[in-house]
Amino acid sequence: MSELGGICLFACDIDADCRKTYEKNYGIRPDGDITKIDAKDIPLHDVLCAGFPCQAFSKAGSRLGFKDKTKGTLFFDIMRILDYHHPKYALLENVRNLASHDHGNTWKVIHDALDNAGYNVIDEPVIFSPHYIGVPQHRERVFIMCVRKDVGSLPPFYFNINKIPTCSIDDILLNDDEIDDLGQYKLREDQIEWIDLWNEFIQNIKCNKLPGFPVWADSLCSLEDNHLVKDWDNLPKWEKNFIIKNNELWKNNKDFIAYWLPKAQKNKNFFGAKAKLEWQAGETDKPNLWEHIMQIRPSGLRVKPGTYFPALVAITQTSIVGKKKRFLTPRECARLQSFPDTFQYDDKNAQAYKQFGNSINVELVKFFARYMFGDTEHQYQYSKEVQFPPDKRQLELSFLEVI
C-alpha cells in the first residue's frame, strides 16, 4: 500500500514476535488483540486491510442476522470496524478453502455481510496465486476486494488460467557465496544419502509412469506380510487403496525391491514419514530428485517440479532446493513473498520462517489494491474481453451468416 502512496496509521497482530518485526521495519508499534480494541480508538482511515482465520461459521440462528452467525470469529471484528468507520475500501485475504468452506455457506455469509454494510464485492471469491504473475510460488489464496458503494463500482475480475507466465526459481535464489553461515542450510551427508536412496528407487523401478500415489516402503511387500493388513476391516478405503497399489508395485519389482529395501532401512533417516515418497513432479523419462524441489512432509518426502515452490508454510522445515542440496534461506522466503531485500526479518530463523509462512505476498496486495482503487488500465487487463477474447473465426462465421 505504501508503494501506491498510502500511509499506515494503525497495525495490529496478536503475535508478539510479529509485532517486533513490524516495528523494526515500519516504525509503528502494533497493538495486540484486535478483539479487545474499541473501534473508536482506531484512527480514521481510507483502507482497511485484514486477514482472518477461516473458522466454521455457525448455521444456527440464521434468522437472527449476521452478528449471530459470525460471533466468535475474527471476521466479526473486521465488520464492527467497517460498521463504525465506513472506510472507502477494504482488502481481505484468506486461505483458498474459504471459497468452498461449508459448501459455500461461509462465503455467502461474508459476501452478504459486506454487501449489507454498503460495499461492492465481486459475487464469486477471487482465487489467485503469486505464480500467476511470475513470482515462483504456488500459493492460492482468496482475495476479497471491497469498494464502498458511494465511492465507485467494482467490475468483475477475470483470469485465464492458460495465460500463466513462465516462472523460474532462479529469480529468488541466492548464490551460495551470498549466504552467511551456509552450512546451517546445507543438507547433511546422511540426509543426502537418504534422498539418494529414494532417487535410486525412482530410477530403477519398472512401471509405465512414476507412481502418482504415495509410495510406502512398509507396504512394498506381499499383503500377507504387511502389518497394516492385520487391521484391514477397520482401515479407511483410501488407505486400502494405497496399500493395494504399493503391493502391485512390489509385484512388478520384486527383485529390485528385495535388494533396495534392506539397504534403505539401514539409513538412520529411513523411518516414519521419511520412509514414504510422494512424487508430484509429473512424467519424465529420466527422473532425478536433485532436479526438483522437495519437502519433508508428515505424509512423506514430497517432490515437486523445479519450476516454482509450493506455498510457504509456518514451519522451520521449508523446501529443499534439489540442485543446491540445501534448504531455502529466510531471505529467499522473503523474496517468495515479494518483500524487498531491505526487509529485516527476525534474528531467529524459526520465527522468520513462521512469519513469512503466515504472510501475504506483497505484490499480490499491490495487484489487487490497484484493481480495487479503480486503475482502469489494470482493470481492463483483467476484463473478460482481454482474458477470454472471442474466437475470431467464430466472429467471421457469424458475420457471414448475417449476410
Give a description of the structure.
The chain is of the alpha+beta class and 403 residues long. 33% of the residues lie in helices and 12% in strands. The strands form three sheets. The protein has a six-stranded mixed sheet. Strands 1, 2, 3, 4 and 6 form a five-stranded mixed sheet that branches. Strand 9 and strand 10 (300-304) form a beta hairpin. The longest helix is centred in the middle third of the chain and has 16 residues, at 189-204.
Q: Which helices and strands, and how do they pair?
A:
Layout: H1 16-26, E1 47-51, H2 66-70, H3 74-85, E2 89-95, H4 105-116, E3 119-121, E4 126-128, E5 137-138, E6 141-148, H5 189-204, E7 215-216, H6 237-251, H7 254-265, E8 276-279, E9 293-297, E10 300-304, E11 309-310, E12 320-321, E13 326-327, H8 330-336, H9 349-358, H10 362-372, H11 376-381, H12 384-387, H13 392-402
Parallel strand pairs: 1-2, 5-11, 8-10
Antiparallel strand pairs: 2-6, 3-6, 4-6, 7-8, 9-10, 9-12, 12-13
Helix pairs in contact: 5-7
Provide a brief overview of the structure.
The protein has 403 residues and is α+β, with helices and mostly antiparallel strands.
Structural class assignment: alpha+beta
Kindly estimate the percentage of residues that lie in beta strands according to DSSP: 5-15%
Query: If you compute it from the alpha carbons, what radius of gyration comes out, rounded to the nearest whole angstrom?
Result: 25 Å
Mean pLDDT level: 90
- Summed up, the helix count is 13
Low-confidence stretches: 58-65
Order of helices and strands: HEHHEHEEEEHEHHEEEEEEHHHHHH
Distance between the termini: 52 Å
